[in-house]
Amino acid sequence: MALYFTSINSGSNGNCYYVGNDNEAVLVDVGLTCKEVERRMARLGLAINKVKAIFISHEHSDHIKGLTVFAKKYKLPVYISTPTLKSGRLVLDAANTFSLSHLQTIQIGDLKIAAFSKFHDAADPYSFTIECNTVKVGVFTDIGAVCDRLIHHFKDCHAAFLEANYDTQMLQNGRYPYFLKQRIMGGHGHLSNAQALELFTNHKPAHMSHLLLSHLSKDNNDPELVEMLFKTVAGDTFVKVASRYEETDLYYVSADQNAAQQYVFRPELYQPDQLNLF
């Protein structure tokens, strides 16, 4: 069974990632308004009733902005750590809110979601992998430093969202105040292009078919620059920058290398009763 995945949005203005199979899906973070997530999923032909749970990485507003409304409207379970819930001052349905912990694995239908701690300046931040029938997609953003846990999970992934937040020279020479530059580069902020590239170059598994470069800084990075930087060493791996302004195409990957492809939804090809297939 294949996994479908897309970035609904990726950046400091909002983050939301969709991963699922033919029957169920999960969202990692809801950092856009409920209405905007609905609008973008509709453009992709993604049925919201396939979403069975939401997983929250941490409490920064660009990851939880639309969570309360979206979860309440669709009566979705939310998996979030207790410190994140408290720090985010979120009001969620207690009966449908479930605590996350380091190295916890949650089964959602045929999807297995694994959570593990990461370095970031938040109360209790997590990265995630979503797996179905040995196919695995990783969501690795908002990370201050590469650790052994990240390397271990990255090496298992068939596809990944990987943060490449900033170009070091652009950040150092840019307009940000000194304290903010130190926060970003200080080991609990974000991954630079160079750090992400080193992870990709040294630990990319042979079966990785897709890499979506994520959470790029608007002021301290260049999407064309970073995409070409990774493409020069990507080999057969498809590389794309996840936009901070719109959803990406819908992609899918399976355990069969030959089946790893881009799926582009074209609503004009379907009858009304065939829409929202995924």
UniProtKB/TrEMBL annotation:
<dbReference type="InterPro" id="IPR036866">
    <property type="entry name" value="RibonucZ/Hydroxyglut_hydro"/>
</dbReference>
<dbReference type="Pfam" id="PF00753">
    <property type="entry name" value="Lactamase_B"/>
</dbReference>
<dbReference type="InterPro" id="IPR052533">
    <property type="entry name" value="WalJ/YycJ-like"/>
</dbReference>
<dbReference type="InterPro" id="IPR001279">
    <property type="entry name" value="Metallo-B-lactamas"/>
</dbReference>
<feature type="domain" description="Metallo-beta-lactamase">
    <location>
        <begin position="13"/>
        <end position="188"/>
    </location>
</feature>
<protein>
    <submittedName>
        <fullName>Metallo-beta-lactamase</fullName>
    </submittedName>
</protein>
